[in-house]
Specification:
alpha/beta, nine-stranded mixed beta sheet, about 20% strand
């Protein structure tokens, strides 16, 4: 099946008849997916195919097709630091992430991005939203990695008024320079069909609220998304109240920063009033459940987001890049923190989290034609092997996706109508050779000067057995 499937997927026009196709209205049988070029032509009844498409159709017995996942929040420059967070106190960004991203050169940025893209594709992610304040040279390296792997990327640039560790009353970067960098980034991505631009800021840590408002307005006029962290950790909320008398999301709303073009990362400490502000302004949120489990102060109120119509998707925040385990963590975290205390046994039900990682994340990323398999949509999808004991017999496919499916069941990953991964390995390049070639570089990045790990390696604390 694998060779026949990949051969079919390499055609300019192909027709697939899986046992099950996940649509916007849930899983359905007896449907056919027709793709031409990078676009879905139709996802309708197989019986209605014309004679030519019937003859060309590949029947995928024992397989399902679902939309590809979108990682609504990651940091491509931090790939080689993900294991360093084990056992660390929550406030790690100055000790780990700042020195790591400051210490890598453009070659290391390329390797870090491509390494993560490979992990993302293996985990079912066909699209990625990168939060970064990259300049053009750094983004050129990241874009090269995205082009070589075939993944869809929401790229990012940015420039804070002041360095986060600098004197806040010191010399400021002129707003015009920040806006010029945004426009340069838009021009840099204009000829790259799977790469779209965005802007990121370090919130009020490095910018005055009025500067954030000006950047937001510029992003809105340019039709790109604006990424901000907000309400992630206790110190951030505390400092915001001390400086401005407002919580972070309240502050952003008061200054007109929030809007449909804004993607807020985390919002783990959002109050009911702040949830209402997100809904009112139509801002989107990246819910990062594994980040909360591993390095957070709280779990975002994603069930409240869903109940009140707040747009949200799921992100990794540079923890692990396995979409199925992200689904599991999303439901699991809500069940433990909100569901158990109210006897909410559904905890959103399976479809809430499947929708969140597919069309919800794509919507948060600003991709209106991704995350659902319908006529006119981008052909980004996964082919799943259903014939495993863990997932048979099938009674409720979306709950099974959340709780039982694994990335080793991904038979193929397709982005823009082109197969990019089959049986866990890249179709057009040698993933194993890439890992062998750059493993030592990854180890060097993880030990750059300035990186401080408090916890230390596990064998340092393991009790000795005589």
């Amino acid at each position: 099946m694998s060779d026949n499937l990949i051969a079919a997927l390499k055609r300019d026009r192909f027709v697939l008849k899986p046992d099950l196709l996940l649509t916007a209205n849930g899983p359905q049988r007896d449907l056919a997916l027709v793709v031409e070029g990078s676009t879905v032509v139709s996802a309708g009844p197989a019986a209605e195919l014309d004679a030519a498409d019937q003859a060309a159709a590949l029947t995928l017995d024992g397989h399902a097709i679902i939309p590809g996942f979108t990682d609504a929040h990651t940091h491509l420059g931090q790939t080689f630091g993900k294991i360093l967070i084990g056992g660390e106190p929550a406030q790690i960004w100055r000790r780990l992430w700042v020195p790591m991203e400051a210490g890598i050169d453009d070659e290391a940025a390329y390797v870090s991005a491509k390494w993560q893209f490979l992990e993302q594709l293996r985990g079912g992610f066909t699209g990625v939203v990168n939060y970064a304040l990259n300049d053009a040279a750094r983004n050129a390296a990241v874009h090269r990695a995205a082009e070589e792997t075939g993944i869809r990327l929401r790229s990012s640039t940015g420039l804070d008024e002041v360095a986060t560790d600098a004197d806040p009353n010191g010399e400021r970067v002129p707003l015009a320079r920040i806006l010029d960098r945004i426009d340069e980034h838009i021009a840099q991505t204009s000829a790259l069909p799977r790469i779209t631009p965005s802007v990121s800021s370090g919130s009020f840590f490095g910018n005055r609220p009025e500067t954030l408002a000006a950047i937001s307005e510029h992003a809105k006029k340019r039709g790109i998304i604006y990424q901000l962290h907000a309400n992630e950790h206790f110190p951030e909320v505390h400092d915001s109240i001390l400086q401005f008398g407002k919580r972070p999301l309240e502050l952003l709303a008061e200054h007109g920063v929030l809007g449909p073009h804004v993607l807020i990362h985390h919002a783990t400490l959002a109050t009911d009033r702040e949830v209402a502000l997100l809904q009112k302004t139509d801002a989107a949120v990246a819910y990062n459940p594994v980040a909360s489990e591993w390095k957070g102060n709280a779990v975002a109120p994603a069930l409240a987001f869903a109940a009140h119509g707040v747009r949200f998707g799921l992100g990794s925040d540079n923890t692990r890049f396995d979409g199925f385990r992200t689904l599991d963590a999303a439901e699991h975290a809500q069940r433990l923190t909100y569901g158990l205390r109210t006897a909410d046994f559904s905890a959103g039900a399976g479809w809430t989290w499947v929708d969140a990682i597919t069309r919800g994340s794509a919507d948060a990323a600003g991709w209106s034609d991704v995350g659902v398999l319908s006529a006119g949509a981008r052909a980004d999808f996964l082919v799943l092997d259903m014939e495993r004991p863990e997932t048979q017999p099938s009674w409720d496919f979306e709950w099974e996706l959340v709780r039982y499916y694994n990335r080793d069941q991904i038979a193929a990953v397709v982005v823009d109508g082109r197969p990019v991964l089959a049986a866990g390995q890249p179709v057009d390049w040698d993933g194993r050779e890439f890992l062998r070639r750059y493993r030592a570089l990854g180890q060097r990045v993880g030990s750059l000067p300035g990186i401080t790990r408090v916890h230390g390696a596990s064998d340092r604390y393991r009790p000795k057995v005589s």
